[in-house]
Hints:
Elements: E1 9-11, E2 18-20, H1 32-38, H2 55-60
Antiparallel strand pairs: 1-2
Bound molecules: zinc ion.
Zinc ion binds near residues 12 and 14.
Amino acid sequence: MNTSPTLTTLACPRCQQSTTWQNNPSRPFCSERCKLIDLGAWANEDYAIPVEPTPNDFLTEEDE
Ligand SMILES: [Zn+2]
């Protein structure tokens, strides 16, 4: 049981955006996008994401 009310924050190693460790399935990255980029999955400019999006992804998705 984690009783600490403070979220652990960290900077995304890909875009340096501040993100949280908790509730972040893409940690240590800020998003699935950054994780895929860092893994080289985006070598092609097409959105050839080899994973299926989860409902949780839509909650954190932001248009840029
Ligand atoms: Zn990022």
